[in-house]
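Reopening this ticket.

The earlier resolution said the output was attached, but the attachment link was broken on my side. Pasting everything inline this time so it's all in one place.
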Amino acid sequence: MKEEKKNSKLFFIMWLIIVFSGSLYTVSKISKETLWYDEAYSAMIIKHPLPDIIKITASDSHPPLYYLSLSLYSKIFGNSVFSLRFFSFLWVIGLALLGLTSLRKIAGKEISLIFTLFLFLFPLFFNMGRELRMYTLGAFLVTFSTIEMYNFIHTNTKASFIKFILFSILAMWTHYFSLLSVAIIDLISFLWIIFRRKKWLILPFMSAILIQVLTYIPWVFALLSQAGRVAKDFWIPKIDFWTFLWLLIFPFSDKFGVYWVERPWTDLIALIFSIVLLMFGIRAAFKSKRDVDRFALFCFLVYFFVLISGIVISEFFRPIIVPRYLTSVYSLLMIFIAYSISKLPFKTLKYLSIIFLAVCLVNVHFFINNNRFNGAMDKVKKYLENKITSNDIFLHVDEHTFGTFAYYFPENKHYLYLGPAYKGYSGFEAFKPNGIVKSNDIDRVVQSQKEFWLVNYNWAPQRLLSESWIVEGKLILKDIPRVFQYRASFYRPKIFRVSPSTNRFSEVEWGKLHTTNLLDTHIFSDKSFDLIVSISGIKKIQGELNVILYENNILPENMFMFKVIKVTSPVEEVKFEGVPAGTYSVFVYQDLNLNEKPDKIFEPEGFSGRCEDESEFVIDNYTNIVVKLK
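Inline output:
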């Protein structure tokens, strides 16, 4: 008895050290990043009354529980970035408490302690615990539901039955992948009951399903409406090898997959090592008949079939799966990895496995802490703070800039132009009253302004269209365009100070692009030349060549023009017409998988000159550049 109390006390002390140090580490970084679009959406929608939140959410692509609970939380604790993100971190603490209590009772102290360590060691919850979204809440609810369903199957206790019903319903109202997770839990549990011949559980189990269905009926029409919109068009890419790999590697990497493309792949090594552990754990779980083995297998099956279901739906219906949506079941995967380590035959092997994973993942944490991924809205805010008044307006051509600027500049009017080829995907009512969507009648907006701000960003579908407005004389550029970026971020806003001209927007066919590419101040230079770029070293006749011309050295903010051509031969040639005299660099990559970004793992690329640091050339002396792909 004394030995058991001593072990329990030691367990609690170790758990407390892990949670305290992990919390301190995570919370200290919680405000490092500015908000990106999805987070800005969360921060803006909760400013509306609760009935309006439900209405707006119905026009988006998520259930409303997270936004409603965040709104109530913000009324008590405020709506600062730190406070709102801390709401997400609270559910990581909730998962740790599950490790201390419910998980420990089923799986034992060892698995519980390893799982708690993984919550703070794996980059997943360091990333999602600082994300102003519903993913950690979904993970907590699905994990709790899984534990209580397993308890109900094996103990048939009333408390577990009630808790499963409650937390599964909350999960269903949090995120659609949490809803899918609950459906998978129900299916596996039903099959488990049938094959284990526990007939006395069928009636209460079916009553639980009935309660779940009845409580979700009020949201069914919104779900069907959202599914109909997604079926027509949505932003999520198709499943291929790289997107599948990203689904697997996400718990071990940064949230946007930058690390496993650009750095030594210790996250990939951690994934491979974890797969080896999983295979060992699956074998051990099938061989043993103890409750802990069955529970671990139950957790893994929920994770596995949610992953497979998302992939199947994406392949045969419409792509619906991105890694962060699986956060609700990644915690179950962590439980199974912890179980797999606990089944290793020697303590030394267990310690070495944890240390090996830690070494791999600490390197990822170092990368995450030394980069910014959400964009440079802090730089934008600093640049504009003394240049704008509350009367200034912003004209946006993409929802990403529309949402983030609406959050960081709430006193200003923000207009989002949705052209014929771009409809957007969000419930934009969240950004009202100062966020206004326009599909026409831009003349009335811009002609009423002496000057205003035109905003796009590097991946915006309407970026070239917006810059053609200046070239075609519909808008007059008043200052040098500014690009704001961090190296690891996909989101790099570009700002133009412009004034309206006498050429009305309505006089030009919408959506028709002319000869211009990326706009830069050099477009006003008097002396210009035709630049020919010859590309050699093409080994695969497939995909497209992306040829990017930079002013001076190769930096994102120096991007000047680009062209994309289909690869038809081992040597290709690209001609840039009317390039002003000046100093430039060229970067070329072969886009084999047509995802519109350079995948350095396998896609050839090349620079003008001998290397990136010596890539500059002067247009005035010569206008024919040779780039060899490697």
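Reporter confirms the inline version is readable. The mean pLDDT is 86. The chain has three domains: 45-227+237-369, 377-516, 522-628.
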